[in-house]
Amino acid sequence: MADILQVLGDIGSRVDEKMLELLAVGASKDFQEVVIHQVQAGGKRIRPALTILFCEAAGGTIENALSTAAGIELIHNYSLILDDIIDDADVRRNLPTTWKKFGLNFGILASTHYREAIEEAILQSPNPLAISRIVADTIRELVEGERLDILFEQLPGTEEYTEKHRYHDVTLEDYETMIGNKTAALIRAACETGVICANGSAALQTAARDFGWNAGIAFQLADDMLDLFAEETKLGKKSGKDIYEHKLGNTVILNALPLLSEKNRTYTLKILRSEKPSDADVRKVIGLLKETKASQIVEKEAAKLVNDAKNALDNFPNKEKTKLLATLVDFIYQRSF
Amino acid sequence: MADILQVLGDIGSRVDEKMLELLAVGASKDFQEVVIHQVQAGGKRIRPALTILFCEAAGGTIENALSTAAGIELIHNYSLILDDIIDDADVRRNLPTTWKKFGLNFGILASTHYREAIEEAILQSPNPLAISRIVADTIRELVEGERLDILFEQLPGTEEYTEKHRYHDVTLEDYETMIGNKTAALIRAACETGVICANGSAALQTAARDFGWNAGIAFQLADDMLDLFAEETKLGKKSGKDIYEHKLGNTVILNALPLLSEKNRTYTLKILRSEKPSDADVRKVIGLLKETKASQIVEKEAAKLVNDAKNALDNFPNKEKTKLLATLVDFIYQRSF
Fold first, then answer.
1. Which CATH number is A43's domain given?
2. Is this complex's ipTM strictly greater than 0.85?
3. Per-residue pLDDT averaged across B172-189, rounded?
4. What's the domain range around A133?
5. Residue of A27, A129, A150 with shortest CB distance to B105
6. How far is A306 from chain B (nearest CA, A)?
């Protein structure tokens, strides 16, 4: 694991430098501090690492993939700026969110500028047309995922349109559509664009897409487990955040609901739909979820996805980088199990 | 003038159809009504008409330019969705604004989707790389223009960052930077991309840029005149909107300020900086502005810009379309003078 952290760190510093360069294009002096704030909050840079490692695994170099990798990480950060506005979030990674620090108007302007820094990254890539097609599709999937995430929330809000369209029941299938769009699509794009930067074959592109999709869903399942069951020190934030935020969109909750007794199910849904659940209530719900087999079901599903992801790596020519990709997917997965 | 209205109408219906097609890509069924709302509110479609007429003037066809023209009009509408959020605007063209109708969250998601419909338009254009470069530069200019527009407003707001960076004095030069970014840049892009769609020469591209820039600034000066001096029935909205909205960014106001007596200047600035000026106060300020030579100065400047724009048309091969472009710039200009 030390190896993979070293790899992520090395790639991260190259990508960070490139992102700052891309964000500086066309930003006036006074606007610079607004646009760099989000990326300066840091992050593990897993997505650009996937782009670069897939480029190398397919026979390319880090230089072939660098601007695209930075573009992929900028897409992630673009979505975070917007999510923080939508979720009314004040803090991310112990810093004020962009919109909180600079106000809503400048948050919106910053996000708009991010999209053009992404365009800049596309134009600097080895195959702008292919990358542009994937970026446009992926951002629309992120929008659709966020749209569903908003509508899956279980606490009534004040926006009439949202209330009219809210999902009062969320099925596992609905949830998988949401996380596919919101999480897996960008991870898939990270992997596929890496192969494109290496000018890899259509078969390798498909393999990278398979890897990315499976790893992306596993990543989200791991996140769902983490949210409910991680020790708070490991998480760096309160556990049960999905419950405090009234989200039915957590795979453990959705798997557990049909397994609970009528009484406990009613109680769990009541807590999910209450405006300010007490810490004791949240702990009690987590306890009820733990007693079901839901986490085993999720763990089994995630293990299968990780395995499928690794199988997609078989035909890549650079075995050293392929091995790093397998380690990376384990790293993502083992955060929670 | 009847001719040019007919031309705008014909082009508009082709562009409207194309915009709906581009917006439908990747939008789930439930999201459709959210994304089409802004373009269904209508508009004169002057920008896409410029793209198509410049393509034809340079020897191309409407089919060469259609997706790009639709993309240009989508950029305009993308900026309107965001401006309406930033300006807290409830109504546009007698309809609720997108964010007002669907809530802030869906307004933000709609705007994000617009940007990818623009990408779709670029990918369908005859020269995606050249168009993409111009689009990215232009949207960043729009962001910069909006950033300055926010900071030029004269009423203190509640956002700390904005207050700290607000311009307490706005010079004519500041104002010209703002309208260049916010208005002229997109009109210039509309003209230049038209020539690119026709695969026109570098000299014709430069001529189209010159035309667009001059016409764009003239367009804004006309708007500034209209805002203050048009009869309300002609305007379809209250005159003096810039005063009610506490904007120093109106070229007539900026030209008039140094020409007013100390007492009248102080009074005008006081009204511009008061939260809710009375109708009588606004009428009085408009009267004071009218007594100066400011409107003659602006009119003269606009006339020169219109003339320069027309001169840039000399070398285009299709003289019939060139004539229409000259008529179009007169149409834009004569709305107010």
1. 1.10.600.10
2. yes
3. 96
4. 2-334
5. A150
6. 28
